[in-house]
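Hey, can you fold this one?
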Amino acid sequence: MTISEEPVQDLDESRPDLRVGIPEREAARKALKAHLAAERLHSTEYDQRWADCREARTQAELLRIFADPPAPHPDLPNLPGPSADTDDDISPLAVSVGVALLVGLPVTVVLGFAYGAWWTLAVPVTVSVAMVYAEHLMAMTRNRQAQEELGPNCC
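Sure. Predicted structure:
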């Protein structure tokens, strides 16, 4: 997000009120710092408005903070665009597990009938379970890192 030189965006009822996150709050902080540097805000008013920005949950709440000062204002997105990833319904993990099972199970059945090696059934199942568990651990790590980046005072 950047700061915008345009007037505060309209808050008409036809536009959905989107939630804000860290990028939008950072854009608002930069705009507030610009107002503080231009001496349009006193330090106490800057602190109060920054506290209001941290507590804002929607774009409307964030834009109300910038109703009276001139530009710059935070540049907020109007609507989320379509996802660039068209295959977001199928995760790479699902594809990997599917390939492991689709290739591994027929090979296992052939080996089972030809050589009596039914123990090979454990190979594709074990690989699939290991991939699912690895994805679970990576997701937990990503969630923990995201929470650490937000810090205890945000959101």
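The beta strands are 3-4, 73-74. Let me know if you want another pass with a different chain boundary.
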